[in-house]
Specification:
By secondary structure, the chain is α/β, with parallel strands linked by helices. It has a six-stranded mixed beta sheet with strand order 6-9-8-7-10-11, with helices on both faces. The chain has a five-stranded mixed beta sheet with strand order 3-2-1-4-5, sandwiched between helices. The chain starts with a strand and ends with a helix.
Length: about 240
């Protein structure tokens, strides 16, 4: 088994992989992560682990705990070897989650041009060439961020939930805000697909992140929806570095 740690700003996703499959996922608060890992590696045997953090600062206590039980540990960073090329001009600023999602998609559909979309707090649009090179991408506000910004930066617009009725055109303020955020993001995504497809015939589209399924129901396209694209990519990066 392999342990995959994906640490966010406030919570951490811990995944268990067997071979190329993600077989278990647990979400903990960052403060609880160390104790969870300590208990888990005491109960099970892991051949390797990968640790990724948006903070790019790694908990030395956690690394020390893992090193006593796990023979191979990879901490994602600028020197981590990757199974895809990076054409980004500032690779040191490229988010680990974007790299991992691109790697995960590439292993699912190699030798195809890929548009990898991660619809989370932010929505990222990243292009991978048919030769396995990360060409670059864009970052936009996510659904919840759009709704919150409309409320916080205006005088009278309410804060509405993203769940609820979703007409094409709103018939009151609540549905107008929700449709503006969700339908707007869907039109944005379709625009990126059209533009990338025009320059990359045979383009395949992967959609991941917390709002992936919701956007997929709006998009009139054949796309791959995979909530585990990031941990799958981290697992492949671990495998590539350790040669498991």
């Amino acid at each position: 088994m392999r342990l995959i740690i994906d640490q966010g700003n406030s919570a951490t996703k811990l995944h268990i992989a067997t071979g190329d499959k993600i077989v278990e996922t647990t979400v903990t608060e960052n403060e609880e992560m160390l104790e969870y890992v300590r208990q888990r590696i005491a109960d099970d045997t892991f051949e390797a682990a990968i640790y990724s953090s948006v903070r790019r600062e790694y908990d030395k206590r956690l690394i020390n705990v893992m090193s006593r039980k796990i023979p191979h540990i990879v901490c994602m960073g600028n020197t981590t070897h990757l199974p895809i090329g990076i054409e980004y001009r500032t690779p040191h600023t490229l988010g680990h989650d974007r790299i991992a999602a691109a790697v995960g998609a590439w292993y699912e559909q190699p030798h195809h041009p890929l548009l990898v979309v991660d619809a989370g707090t932010a929505i990222t649009y990243d292009l991978v060439s048919s030769k396995g090179k990360f060409m670059g991408g864009n970052i936009a506000a996510g659904i919840e961020m759009r709704l919150r910004a409309l409320h916080e930066h205006t005088g009278r617009l309410p804060l509405v939930k993203s769940n609820g009725e979703l007409p094409m055109l709103g018939y009151d303020t609540e549905t107008a805000l929700r449709a503006g955020a969700l339908q707007g993001a869907a039109f944005e995504l379709e625009g990126y697909i059209n533009a990338c497809e025009a320059q990359n015939p045979g383009l395949l589209v992967f959609l991941t992140g917390g709002d992936a399924e919701r956007l997929a129901t709006i998009i009139k396209r054949t796309i791959f929806v995979d909530r585990n694209l990031v941990p799958k990519g981290l697992n492949r990066i671990l495998e590539y570095n350790v040669k498991l």
